[in-house]
């Protein structure tokens, strides 16, 4: 089949037109629409994550630093009752309680630690701890501070549970100021 000169000219112009279009695009991908989609998704994710993020807040008072000279000053007020000086230690065996700088022993038997051992099922006895703290708060009603000490292997759940018991017994406030101290060795 013979193609006329006119048809050949039209085919040549079409081919040249297609070649020019191919050269203009350069074979590159247009990624602008893709980047628009990605940015919209990121903005949406950031907006939803900040509203869904649950942040817990626990008020903690740390002990203040003092020099040895000022710490050794003793008040001579005879009417002032001694402070409870409560320290509660959480160990893998139970709670160790320290009152007025002296360890309180289980059943008042020296060297029989901990003060409040774990229950038979291996859980901490928060009820016994609360009962002891309520009794001591009755003896020292002005005392508001307790120091919490925990072994390094004690999980966060038990530290927070103990803090809750230290702060309140139901609706009754016990020791609202809970200070943290270094753990046992």
Model description:
The protein is of the alpha/beta class and 185 residues long. The protein has a domain at 84-181: 2-Layer Sandwich (Nucleotidyltransferase, domain 5), CATH 3.30.420. Helices cover 39% and strands 17% of the residues. It is built from five helices and eight strands, in the order αααββββαβαβββ. The chain has helices at residues 5-25, 32-52, 68-71, 126-139, 156-167, and strands at 86-91, 94-99, 102-104, 116-117, 145-150, 168-169, 172-173, 177-181. Strands 1, 2, 3, 4, 5 and 8 form a six-stranded mixed β-sheet that branches. The protein has a two-stranded antiparallel ribbon with strand order 6-7. Strand 1 and strand 2 form a beta hairpin. Helix 4 (126-139) packs parallel to helix 5. The longest helix is centred in the first third of the chain and has 21 residues, at 5-25. The protein is rod-shaped. The model is unreliable at 69-74 (pLDDT under 50).
């Amino acid at each position: 089949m013979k193609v006329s000169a006119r048809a050949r000219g039209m085919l040549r112009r079409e081919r040249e037109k297609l070649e020019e279009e191919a050269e203009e695009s350069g074979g590159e991908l247009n990624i602008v629409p893709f980047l628009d989609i990605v940015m919209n998704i990121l903005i949406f994710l950031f907006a939803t994550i900040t509203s869904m993020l649950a942040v817990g807040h626990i008020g903690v008072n740390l002990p203040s630093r003092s020099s040895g000279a000022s710490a050794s000053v003793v008040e001579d007020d005879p009417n002032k009752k001694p402070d409870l000086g409560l320290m509660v230690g959480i160990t893998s065996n139970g709670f160790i309680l320290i009152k007025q700088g002296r360890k309180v022993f289980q059943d008042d038997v020296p060297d029989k630690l901990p003060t409040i051992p774990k229950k038979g099922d291996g859980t901490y006895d928060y009820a016994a701890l609360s009962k002891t703290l309520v009794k001591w708060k009755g003896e020292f009603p002005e005392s508001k501070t307790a120091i919490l000490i925990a072994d390094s292997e004690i999980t966060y759940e038990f530290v927070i549970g103990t803090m809750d018991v230290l702060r309140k017994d139901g609706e009754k406030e016990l020791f609202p100021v809970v200070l943290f101290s270094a753990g046992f060795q």
